[in-house]
Amino acid sequence: MTPELALKHIWTTAGCDPTALKSVSLAGTDPELPSVYRVGTLASATIAAAGLAAAEYWRLRTGHRQHVAVEMRRALASFRSERYLRIDDGPPPALRDPVMGFYATRDDRWIQLHTNFPHHLAGVLQVLGCANDRAAVAEAIRGWDGATLDQTLADAGLCAALIRSPDEWAALDQAKAIARLPLFEIERIGDAPVEPPRRDGARRPLADVRVLDLSRIIAGPVAGRALAQHGADVLMINGPHLPNIAPLVIDNGRGKRSAVVDLRDDAGRETLRGLAGGADVFLQAYRPGALAAHGFGPEELARIRPGIVYVSVCAYGHTGPWAGRRGFDSLVQSASGIAVTERDAAGWTEPKHLPCQALDHATGYLAAFGAMAALARRATEGGSWHVRVSLAQTGRWLQSFGLLPDGWKAPDVAIDDVRDCLATVESEFGRVLGVLPAEWLDETPAGFALPPARIGAHEAKWA
User: Fold this and answer.
1) Less Cβ around it within 10 Å: N or C end of the chain?
2) pTM metric for this prediction
3) Residue 39 — φ and ψ, nearest 5°?
4) Is residue 368 a contact partner of residue 226, using CB atoms and an 8 Å limit?
5) What does the pLDDT look like over 337-385, one tens digit per residue?
């Protein structure tokens, strides 16, 4: 699979005008990171798709078609944005809890724990009946069979994954459910008038497009960030009780405003309904059905705001027995055979993840692409729309690209190797060094109008 073919797959799956593909140039070939998977192809194609969708929305707005270019090394720097983040020339706060990682089980299997949120860590320690110490956790897990512990933690609403081979994953009902889905879905869910973009003096493709970003960690926030870097007014909404990871708030908060709304009470729900009534895109990355339980499912939003583009991001897909299972990028890699394939190629003993959070970032760019493709449909045919993506669907697509047997031997890329891909901005966190947008649009270069802000720094209203 080449980046060009991967981009064509995204573009044609969405039913977009194929002539636009003539306006894209892609440079670079895998491997540019140590992996047997074609992560550079995934990065280049998904970022180019988002950039081209922004360019096409600009064409609808102005009548001008512009060229889009993506260099693979810059795309991969973007896929590692949290790794290259620096605050005041020093590293940001730690991304991971010390207990997170791989553990050997009684039956000589491996399981991965994901304990970056305090309540997830506390729940795992309670199930295991041990202290908050990596050695104690390892000893406790040695008393469990892997599949039993995996299911026990999932039943408790906690985050873990039994390390499976690709064949073991393919045999599961969840993998079969995902195999029946396309890479992403863009579905019309209601009638609404045509809403063409305004043509009066806009300088960015998504000027006047309002986005509510109800997401945390990486995939959903990357989608909101990608929309912000093309001019959308992105308002990030967090609950006051929900945990976050500080460096990801900073990295993925660039270009956004940030407000707090509590959906546990009537006043908070009324506030969000009011915001949704003025939004163009409602982006959410909670488990399927979680927001619908509060009255904010796609059909409800289409009634509140006819013409809404509702974007759903989840871990394991919206159908199948694992649809409600909590998950993150690394867990999907572990469950679906990616970590085994990387391990076996490199000759490691422990499972081995990809050299970046590729499923997160690619899914984020696919979500942003889907949002813009749906906005373009709204501009030409009207309607309300639902875009659905998942980490597992993206992972399945990456696995279909084929392997580079010696790809794991490629040298790693340190921050000094990508200094030209970084830029500094002053913020309330200090001097933030972050990765620049990887896509180049020759009329409307991508960029961030706002520095990152702390959670709740702004009022819950449209600017």
Assistant:
1) C
2) 0.97
3) -70, -30
4) yes
5) 999 999 999 999 999 999 999 999 999 999 999 999 999 999 999 999 9
